[in-house]
Design brief:
By secondary structure, the protein is of the alpha/beta class. Helix content is 24%, strand content 41%. A four-stranded mixed β-sheet has the order 1-4-3-2, covered by helices on one side. A four-stranded mixed β-sheet has the order 5-8-7-6. This is VOC family protein. InterPro entries: Glyas_Bleomycin-R_OHBP_Dase, Glyas_Fos-R_dOase_dom, VOC_core. It comes from Streptomyces hazeniae.
């Protein structure tokens, strides 16, 4: 068994697609119209057949309170692995990304947390 699709709830799919592709560097995998929403996934260009991230609309009534609570408590919605957190944070900062947690070493891992402009906090992490 392996993870095929994971999702992150987004306020606007088109805004999310631009951010996740143009800023974070993912590539669009699927874009299937489903009425007012789309089955819209992105993948890492390093693993195009790997786990897909579904940019899922935040339309369900339970989603907004959930997202708001996570952000208020500083809890990331998901975590992405990078080779070098400080370097990636610098690259993202140059693109205008706002960080809520600067790179922080915690034993064998380094993490940072940023706002994805779609209602979520996202963590980047690397291990030593």
């Amino acid at each position: 068994m392996r993870i095929h699709v994971s999702s992150v709830f987004v306020d606007d799919q088109e805004t999310a697609l631009r951010f996740y592709t143009e800023v974070l560097g993912f590539v669009k995998k699927h874009d299937v119209p489903l009425g007012e929403a789309r089955w819209l996934t992105v993948v890492s260009p390093e693993d195009p057949d790997g786990t897909e991230l579904l940019l899922e609309p935040s339309g369900h009534p339970a989603v907004q309170p959930y997202k708001t609570a996570l952000v208020q408590d500083g809890i990331p919605a998901t975590s992405f692995a990078v080779d070098d957190v400080p370097a990636e944070a610098g690259r993202l900062r140059e693109l205008g990304v706002q960080f809520t947690q600067e790179p922080l070493e915690m034993g064998p891992v380094t993490t940072a947390v940023f706002d994805d402009t779609c209602g979520n906090l996202i963590q980047i992490v690397h291990s030593k």
